[in-house]
Design goal:
It contains seven helices and 13 strands. The protein is of the alpha+beta class. Strand 5 and strand 6 form a beta hairpin. Helix 4 runs antiparallel to helix 5 (about 180-190). The termini are far apart.
Length: about 260
């Protein structure tokens, strides 16, 4: 699992990315929040029933009906470069209310919002999840070959193609009224046209807050190095050079005097 410091390193190296940086970034995982795009999937679990896909968002509440499954798109887009993998897990708070989360792997090259699947196994509707709530986490790990080999980077074009495939697959599952919003969700954050996830991430105020402790440490380290250099130059090097120059000048004077 990646540590907090690892996230900073791989964010800066543009190997792992998340945008917007609105949720928690802690040792081992990235927090994911619920977006306004959520729907109840079609259900054929009852004999003779073919229940339609429905918009699950009512105001700021994401409703998970009894015995039904809801797909929620994460607010955040996540990117993993080659050699990185992850798994999406739910928060404990939903499991204690009879909401089963379908853990899913994230493969290298993932680029975009993540699909979060919640199934209500109880006989009552669940109405305690709100838009913007942190509802899942991503655990990310690095493969050994990332360290041992200089892997070729995934290009922006490859990310765009992967994103388009994911958007199309989700669109096919959702109610028609959400199709355009799903496509726009993928477009708005990063990978289709002029912008890029990392460019957007590094402009994010949340990213600045996350990086501040490391930048502060680096700044302090630079100050210490500068003080050490200043001490060496002013306390040691300058006197040595001054003495050497003085000795050389004295030797020249003596030499000239003897010649005369």
């Amino acid at each position: 699992m990646l540590s907090h410091k690892d996230f900073y390193k791989y964010f800066e190296d543009e190997k792992v990315g998340i945008y917007p940086v609105t949720s928690k970034i802690e040792d081992g995982f990235l927090g994911l929040t619920a977006s306004t795009i959520a729907w109840v999937i079609k259900d054929r679990s009852f004999e003779g029933a073919d229940l339609p896909a429905l918009n699950a968002v009512e105001g700021d509440i994401i409703k998970i009906p009894a015995k039904r499954t809801v797909i929620i798109l994460s607010n955040e887009s996540v990117y993993l470069d080659k050699g990185f993998s992850g798994i999406v897990l739910s928060k404990v708070s939903t499991r204690t209310h009879g909401i089963v989360f379908s853990a899913s792997p994230i493969k290298p090259g993932c680029s975009g919002p993540l699909r979060l699947s919640f199934h209500n196994v109880t006989g009552e509707d669940y109405n305690d999840l709100k838009v913007g709530d942190e509802c899942a986490v991503v655990m990310i790990d690095v493969c050994k070959n990332v360290i041992e080999n200089n892997l070729e980077r995934i290009t922006r074009e490859e990310r765009r193609i992967e994103s388009e495939k994911c958007a199309d697959s989700l669109k096919d599952l959702a109610p028609e009224e959400l199709h355009e919003r799903i496509i726009n969700k993928f477009k708005e954050i990063n990978m289709y046209y002029e912008d890029d996830l990392f460019e957007a991430m590094k402009r994010d105020q949340g990213y600045d807050s996350f990086c501040e402790p490391y930048k502060s440490k680096m700044s302090k380290r630079k100050q210490k190095i500068k003080k050490s250099i200043d001490f060496f130059v002013h306390k040691l090097l300058v006197p040595i050079i001054t003495a050497a120059v003085g000795g050389l000048i004295g030797a020249i004077i003596v030499y000239v005097a003897l010649r005369q």
